[in-house]
Amino acid sequence: CVSPPWLSMLLTFVSLSPQEKMLNYSMLHGKCRDKFGLRCLPGECVLQRAVLVRKKLSGVEGGGWLAGTLFCTHFRVAFVPQDSEKPDDNADPVLLGDHDVALASIEKVVAVGPSRTKLVTANSSLKFTPEELVLYCRDLRVLCFLFDRLTPETQAVEITYAIAKTYQPLKPGSILSFQNAALGSVEMRQFLSNRRPDGQMKLFDCAADWDGELERTGATGWRVSTINDRFEMATSLPRFNVVPQKVLDTELKKTFAHFNEGRIPRWCWHHPCGSDLLRTASFQNNIYHEKDDIRNLEAIVFGSHQQCVVVELGEEMATLVDIQLAHTRLRALCLGDISASACVPDDRWLSTLESTRWLDHIRCCLKKAAEVACLLRAGQLTVILQEPEDRDMNCVVSSLVQVMSDPYCRTVAGFQGLIQKEWVMAGHRFLSRANYHRDSDKEEAPVFLLFLDCVWQLWAQCPTRFQFTGDYLLALHDSAHLPLFSTFLFNCQRERSRPSQRLPQSYTPVNGCWREATPPDSTQDPLDLLFPAVWDWALQYSPQRRVQFSQPLTNSGPVHSVLNGNLNTSKERFWPNDGALGSVFLLSRGSFSSPSHLLPWRSGGGSGGSYRKSHRRAPSSESLPGLERLQKACLLAESCRGRSEPQELLPQLLGPCVGIWRECYLRGALQAQAFSHPAPVSSHHPLDRLAQEVQQLRDRLAAAAGTRAKKQEPHRANVNLNQNANGGTFLFSAPRISVARAPPPTSALPALAPRDASKRTFLFGQSPDGRPDLRYAPMPSTRLSKKKGSSLAS
Questions:
Q1: Is the separation of the CB atoms in 253 and 226 below 8 Å?
Q2: Quick check: 426 and 234 in contact, CB under 8 A?
Q3: What is the C-alpha to C-alpha distance for residues 407 and 423, in angstroms, rounded to an integer?
Q4: First and final CA of the chain: distance in angstroms?
Q5: Strand 117-120's sheet: what is its strand order?
Q6: Secondary structure (3-state) at 468
Q7: H or E segment at 66?
Q8: Contact present, 494 and 231 (Cβ < 8 Å)
Q9: At 478, is the secondary structure helix, strand, or coil?
Q10: Phi then psi for 166, rounded to 5 degrees?
Q11: Nearest to 68 by CA among 163, 158, 151, 166
Q12: What is the tens place of the pLDDT at every residue in 366-379?
């Protein structure tokens, strides 16, 4: 049989040496761009194309179908609309167009025929001509392409085969191959080496950035230490760490052995009210503490303050296994079974969403961060976040605290610097958590994606307090799934600059990028790679997309969170009144205690500063939740009475206030169900239909009981817990105080008349066509009559 053209091209490409590949890329670059209308990257090679293809647009893109040409290269699947402007040859290349997807981001390839659907792999054989091609991506996108009747059948078959055989399933070695394909050309390496980082962007890879942060926050009594410059004290810590000014490096050197992996308490942020936020790993208990060691340990724990609160995150926060399991369940719910395209029934969608526990983990992170933020506002103390390894949940909570408390961290530059400081330089295991090399499934967990979801929840509740938009967070979420950026490719700064056991290469910084270094005993390799930072948005997105990443900041009024129906404003201080100088307290589950084993060197009643036991605890959560006490202290702290308004952005945590990130997780849901035929414009997601059904059922029950709510009832402050800061209405009604009465028999329910669509309330907004959906899901407590006409189901 005759092999297709793309297969012979691919086999020739594989047989070439690396230098020949680069030369071949250069020769094909101009030809592919001029002949097919695709703006290729330097050295990019087109393997196959198909004409007269329609791409299904998501709701964010406006819906409908877009006609154009589909391409498969050795790096991406690209789609060029037929009415797109001619590419500018002088413009800088963009890695991915608005309608493109990288091969490394593809998880499954599905071909849809007249009467069947097939999951296509590298070893599959198609016995039908695809009418539709569906690409499931790791970032939860679903790209749907429909072949026209005039599309040549050979093109439809061959581009399906080309994508299935060239996309890179995650396995050892596949990521390096993809990186070489994307960044390995001579032209691309030259292009990246000439790029300069943003001068205003703080990467926190030099002492000047840390000094600038100390000056910006107004922190005093702290200094930047270079004792870990060669990573000899702690391999996972950065070169520069902020420690108390009164502790010399010679004294500091003795304290590393007292903490897990040598991750000593380090300064993170200074609150305007005078408190300081620190983070550390757990203490090493089986170490003898010398007198000098105790003095140095006390100095770095207390800093310039006399009281300290340790917030232990190991017991209360979700584990890596919990986060990975919840995210896996969420993906399965949002996308359905990929091979069968099955989805959860509409009447079970919301309950299945809650059973994933993903939203529970978000609430837990937001609640703990709000506790710490309010505690810091009390003023004049150190708050230490403690985690066994100090590389996962400490990153989440410390970052959320600063987003809530520091308006600068809600700007684009401030947020990017925050991620650099609390994630990249702090040693979050990006490579292990993404598990690109598939070498340790036990360490895989989307901790960073959980943090982005938490930030989105804050943004959704009060978007005017942020300079960046939801589109920016979505772009950052998608970039985290693309193994091309130095930001997400390593576990710590040492791996970015030295050889490690986990990576066969070593890396050194070059103009904000990271270059693959040549071993000392070898000559310079012309194929060394440059991994750009993710913050080079011009390399990833078009100017039209980047404009949507930011918005003007407005000085809106403060937003007070409502957690349990009211905010306690009693003037009783939350702080234990028996605290003495040198006292250390533990904040756990909203309560304070002072256990004797909190600091190992004090467990035997030794020296090291004045210390008094304190077993005074905050009231139980049933009478006065610890978080509400902290919020009360946040509003009434005497040290901040001079401020015109609180700067904290505290979250609302009630069930309907924390919702699913629809623009991220549900953007591919309709496309996943759009097999064989274009979906009509009036198609809704199951959540939209459930919102209609619950609203209509509520109206019927209210009418039968004679208690239909008044539509124009004036709003009372802090009563409707479903009304967020932006005036949005949630699915569940606000609680009312009413006299208990027996429910009426279901047979007495009046027939439902179509209601005015403009007066109905949906979970995510009104339906596109404005027509009522007459399908109903019965409430769990409702007993339906078997008589005709009394059923609540359509």
A1: no
A2: no
A3: 19
A4: 55
A5: 101-102, 76-81, 65-73, 46-56, 142-147, 132-137, 106-112, 117-120
A6: strand
A7: strand 65-73
A8: yes
A9: helix
A10: -110, -20
A11: 151
A12: 999 999 999 999 88
Counting Cα atoms < 13 Å in the Cβ hemisphere of 8 gives: 5
- 28 with 187: CB under 8 angstroms? no
Radius of gyration of the chain (CA): 29
**Directed axis angle between helix 393-405 and helix 447-461, to 10°?**
20
Burial (CB count within 10 angstroms: exposed 0-12, middle 13-18, buried 19+), residue 124: middle
> How far is 94 from 664, CA to CA, in rounded Å?
22
Question: Sheet holding 382-387: strands in order across?
Answer: 266-270, 276-281, 382-387, 307-312, 583-588, 591-593
Domains, the chain, with CATH or none: 32-84+91-187 (2.30.29.30), 207-339+346-501+529-548 (no CATH)
Assign residue 516 a region (left: φ > 0; alpha: ψ between -120 and 50; beta: otherwise): beta
Q: Residue type for 505, please?
A: Q
The residues, ordered by sequence, that sit 6+ positions from 588 with a Cβ below 8 Å of its Cβ are 311, 312, 315, 316
Q: How far apart are CA 364 and CA 359, in angstroms?
A: 9
The order of strands in the sheet holding 506-510 is 506-510, 513-517, 530-531
Residue reference for tokens 């608005």? 98
Position 606 pLDDT exceeds 50: no
Q: One-letter amino acid identity for 205? A: D
- DSSP per-residue letters across 555-589: -PPP----SSSS-----S-SS-TT--TTEEEEEET
Tokens of 583: 């006292």
User: 296-347, pLDDT tens digit by residue?
Assistant: 999 999 988 989 999 999 888 999 999 999 999 999 898 876 544 456 777 7
Contact 226, 239 (CB under 8 A): yes
CA distance readout (Å), 110 to 67, 154, 586: 20, 17, 53
Q: What is the pTM of this model?
A: 0.76
Supply the DSSP symbol for 525: P
- Chain center to CA of 110: 27
